[in-house]
TrEMBL record:
<dbReference type="GO" id="GO:0046872">
    <property type="term" value="F:metal ion binding"/>
</dbReference>
<comment type="similarity">
    <text>Belongs to the IlvD/Edd family.</text>
</comment>
<dbReference type="InterPro" id="IPR056740">
    <property type="entry name" value="ILV_EDD_C"/>
</dbReference>
<keyword id="KW-0411">Iron-sulfur</keyword>
<dbReference type="InterPro" id="IPR020558">
    <property type="entry name" value="DiOHA_6PGluconate_deHydtase_CS"/>
</dbReference>
<feature type="domain" description="Dihydroxy-acid/6-phosphogluconate dehydratase N-terminal">
    <location>
        <begin position="46"/>
        <end position="359"/>
    </location>
</feature>
<dbReference type="GO" id="GO:0004160">
    <property type="term" value="F:dihydroxy-acid dehydratase activity"/>
</dbReference>
<keyword id="KW-0479">Metal-binding</keyword>
<dbReference type="Pfam" id="PF00920">
    <property type="entry name" value="ILVD_EDD_N"/>
</dbReference>
<feature type="domain" description="Dihydroxy-acid/6-phosphogluconate dehydratase C-terminal">
    <location>
        <begin position="370"/>
        <end position="576"/>
    </location>
</feature>
<dbReference type="GO" id="GO:0051536">
    <property type="term" value="F:iron-sulfur cluster binding"/>
</dbReference>
<dbReference type="Pfam" id="PF24877">
    <property type="entry name" value="ILV_EDD_C"/>
</dbReference>
<dbReference type="InterPro" id="IPR052352">
    <property type="entry name" value="Sugar_Degrad_Dehydratases"/>
</dbReference>
<protein>
    <submittedName>
        <fullName>Dihydroxy-acid dehydratase</fullName>
        <ecNumber>4.2.1.9</ecNumber>
    </submittedName>
</protein>
<dbReference type="InterPro" id="IPR037237">
    <property type="entry name" value="IlvD/EDD_N"/>
</dbReference>
<dbReference type="InterPro" id="IPR042096">
    <property type="entry name" value="Dihydro-acid_dehy_C"/>
</dbReference>
<dbReference type="InterPro" id="IPR000581">
    <property type="entry name" value="ILV_EDD_N"/>
</dbReference>
Length: 591
């Protein structure tokens, strides 16, 4: 509704200042007054700004938002708004069983209900740990009230014996050292703990740094916000600026649908390649796109992103960590460098009301050891490729993490560059893998392809980050640290494994991973983008019939009500893993 002076009437007025419905207005007001906020404030006509608080003692990565929210409030107040902070369902990546992936859609759903059902004119989305970022952006997309994201920032760099230890990445290294008998249980834990010296999210280029960087590349954060380490004073200042800005965004009626356009998603794909972003990014970015109503195909990740080189030299692909990323210029410097190559849609609008091109034009690289120049990248072709065949309709692979040793071992046939063939060894879920990986009877050798199935959004509710499997200990002792892994689950963004992931459809949703058997030959062709079991169509049909007769693909029983509800509604990873009915609801604050 528009007022006489041309300004849009704030939606919070329907609750707090509606003389036509005095009964309800009185009821709404009296309860919000009960902690001391005054009628004068609530009826002042000032925007009511929600602070969606994802930090708590259960969510250590985002916990610092509890402190930052104070500066956000001060910014909101200074710009003439009123802050109302509310809790968001916690999602702790490493602490939630069976997997934090289960909770992204739950936090999304609950945020939608809060933003739609309460008197909020705009919202500050506090983002950080892996799934908190997509959950918040998905919710803001569905409701479509003015929204701005604020990163909590990465932890300070971890150190051990003079070397940088990065979160997550150090675990993959430490478990190889333990499997090889170089360290024991206690040293293992000390080594891993050294990577977490302060408040904040993972300091590597895992899913958290990826998604926070992409939230900025999408235009949903103030420029430079993603990379500031959590404990730095600049982070407090950014919180204050973010609070100030959201009030103006409400007056300008600048909404997620103005910012999350096709061009901003294209920018996110390009930036994801240049930063060496997580293989979880396509899942989450697709989900955000579907909730705002922008068409984004999985193939665009290869078409737009594959040829972009890796510029950001952060672990796991490189050597540095979060503090270094910030000092080198963070996301604006990466985008500035990509702009020089014409790879960015510079007209995409951002939360500060300016275009991404305007924001980044004056922000060059500050340290080209950490953010490389385009003509001196860490690696060429840093994006994903999309594979398909009789195993699945689509799956993705980050080819930039293929080591030269791996390439030599699997991809050395000069007659067939990019092609490899091998024997499949199949595991049914992570427990089966942990139980049997070191069993010599499996006869796993350096050319084996390891399969993980039953790990998708239905099979292992929420989709487990388990596809990157370590080889058996006897191979690690021979120096074989990575085997080709293929599966319908996900992989941690902190892992540098060359795995084929997010297979869609998963075994539990009718995909042919359900009928592959240990001993089958499998052929992968990276150049053609194909992945096939070398059996006839008749054999596939026979196996599928036998599976159906046996009652279909088996997965563990539901443990909680939400597991059952989500299993019945969830889409596949290639489609963003969204709740299928939820994409029918778009821009609902306007209706
Ligand atoms: Fe929360 Fe990595 S575990 S950011
Ligand atoms: Mg993760």
């Amino acid at each position: 509704m528009t007022l006489d002076n041309g300004e849009k009437k704030l939606r919070s007025r329907a609750w707090f200042d509606n003389p036509d419905n005095a009964d309800m207005t009185a009821l709404y007001l009296e309860r919000y007054l009960n902690y001391g906020i005054s009628r004068e404030e609530l009826q002042s006509g000032k925007p009511i700004i929600g602070i969606a608080q994802t930090g708590s003692d259960l969510s250590p990565c985002n916990r610092h938002h509890i402190v930052l929210a104070q500066r956000v409030r001060e910014g909101i107040r200074e710009a003439g708004g009123i802050a109302i902070e509310f809790p968001v369902h916690p999602i702790q990546e490493t602490g939630k069983r069976p997997t934090a992936g289960l909770d992204r859609n739950l936090a999304y759903l609950s945020l939608v209900e809060v933003l739609y059902g309460y008197p909020l004119d705009g919202v500050v989305l506090t983002i950080g740990c892996d799934k908190t970022t997509p959950a918040m952006l998905m919710g803001a997309a569905t409701v479509n009230i003015p929204a701005i994201a604020l990163s909590v920032g990465p932890m300070l760099n971890g150190w051990h014996k003079g070397e940088r230890t990065g979160s997550g990445t150090i675990v993959w290294k430490a478990r190889e050292m333990m499997a090889a008998g170089e360290i024991g249980y206690s040293e293992f834990i000390d080594l891993v703990a050294s990577s977490a010296p302060s408040t904040g999210f993972c300091n590597t280029m895992g899913t958290a740094t990826t998604m926070n960087s992409l939230a900025e590349a999408l235009g949903m954060q103030l420029p430079g916000s993603a990379a500031i380490p959590a404990p730095y004073r600049d982070r407090q200042e950014m919180a204050w600026r973010t609070g100030k800005r959201i009030v103006d965004m409400v007056h300008e009626d600048l909404k997620p649908s103005d910012i999350l356009t096709k061009d901003s998603f294209r920018n996110a794909i390009v930036v994801n390649s240049a930063i060496g972003g997580s293989t979880n990014a396509p899942v989450h970015i697709t989900a955000i796109a579907r909730h705002i109503g922008v068409e984004l195909e999985i193939d665009e990740w290869q078409a737009i992103g594959h040829k972009v080189p890796l510029l950001v030299n952060l672990q796991p692909a490189g050597e540095y960590l979060g503090e270094d990323y910030y000092h080198a210029g963070g996301v604006p410097a990466v985008i500035n460098e990509l702009m020089g190559q014409g790879l960015i849609h510079e007209n995409a609008l951002t939360v500060n009301g300016k275009t991404i091109g305007e924001n980044c034009a004056t922000r060059p690289i500050q340290d080209d050891r950490v953010i490389r120049r385009f003509d001196n990248p860490l690696k060429a072709d840093a994006g994903f490729i999309v594979l398909r065949g009789n195993l699945f309709d689509n799956a993705i692979m980050k080819t930039s993490v293929i080591s030269s040793e791996f390439r030599e071992r699997y991809l050395s046939d000069p007659a067939h560059p990019g092609m490899f063939e091998g024997k499949a060894v199949v595991f049914d879920g992570p427990e089966d893998y942990h139980h049997r990986i070191d069993d010599p009877a499996l006869e796993i050798d350096e050319h084996t392809l390891l399969f993980m199935r039953g790990a998708g959004p239905i099979g292992y509710p929420g989709a487990a980050e388990v596809v990157n499997m370590r080889p058996p200990a006897y191979l690690i002792k021979q120096g074989i640290t990575a085997l080709a892994c293929i599966g319908d689950g996900r992989q941690s963004g902190t892992s540098g494994s060359p795995s084929i992931l997010n297979a869609t459809p998963e075994a539990a949703a009718g995909g042919n991973l359900a009928i592959i058997r240990t001993g089958d030959r499998v052929r992968i062709d990276l150049n053609k983008g194909t992945a096939n079991i070398l059996i006839s169509d008749d054999e596939i049909a026979t196996r599928r019939e036998a599976l159906n007769d046996a009652g279909g693909f088996k997965y563990p029983p539901h443990q909680t009500p939400w597991q059952e509800i989500q299993r019945g509604l969830v889409d596949q990873l290639g489609n963003g893993g969204v709740l299928k009915p939820a994409v029918n609801y778009q821009r609902i604050a306007q209706t």
